[in-house]
Amino acid sequence: MAKTILIPTDFSVKSLITAKIALEANQDEQGRVKLILIHGIFNSTSITELLFYSKHKVLSQLETPEFQASCRILRSKFESILESMDIDLFNGTSQAAFENYLDGNQIDEAYLPVNRTNQFKNRNSFDLSRFFLKSKLRVQKIDWNKLFPSESSERKDELSSLFFIRAQSAH
């Protein structure tokens, strides 16, 4: 049976480093991995927008070509253990809604970058960290300051960062 891992994303290439760390940490285990990249976004309150809501349309507006290319690279690099890699939106506003999401998707564990500033491109996006930390889920915290000690938060988002980071184990 595959292990399902949840990872927050802001649709930057750097957010996929957490996914890479999670996949590397599970490479030696026997089973396969289902990876869900999740993004928090509030639903519109406009009736018109809700009537014509499309998750696919929202995702296509959030995903950049660099992010899509990085996802393909991860899928290719970890195809031996990766059963699936999905991107999903969470638009709940309560911890109970988040717990229901975890139960409904049978999430086994999560990886959460800490000390990292999200780069949200949509004004309705929000940080999911508080939900992760309050959940009953086993959360592996990835200290961003240890991964990039000398890097300023202004540095450009680069595809190469997926491959050229110092190895770090989850805490």
Structure commentary:
This protein has seven helices and six strands, in the order E-H-E-H-H-H-E-H-E-E-H-E-H. With 171 residues, it is an alpha/beta fold. Strands 1, 2, 3, 4, 5 and 6 form a six-stranded mixed β-sheet that branches. The longest helix has 13 residues, at 65-77.
- Number of strand segments: 6
Series of H and E elements: EHEHHHEHEEHEH
Strand content: 15-25%
The mean pLDDT is 85
Helix content: 25-40%
SS content category: alpha/beta
Question: What are the defining features of this structure?
Answer:
6-stranded mixed beta sheet; 7 helices; alpha/beta
Short description:
This protein is α/β, with parallel strands linked by helices and 171 residues long. It is 33% helix and 22% strand.
Spell out the blueprint of helices and strands:
Elements: E1 3-8, H1 16-25, E2 33-41, H2 47-51, H3 55-62, H4 65-77, E3 82-90, H5 95-104, E4 109-114, E5 125-126, H6 129-134, E6 138-143, H7 144-147
Parallel strand pairs: 1-2, 1-4, 2-3, 4-6
Antiparallel strand pairs: 2-5
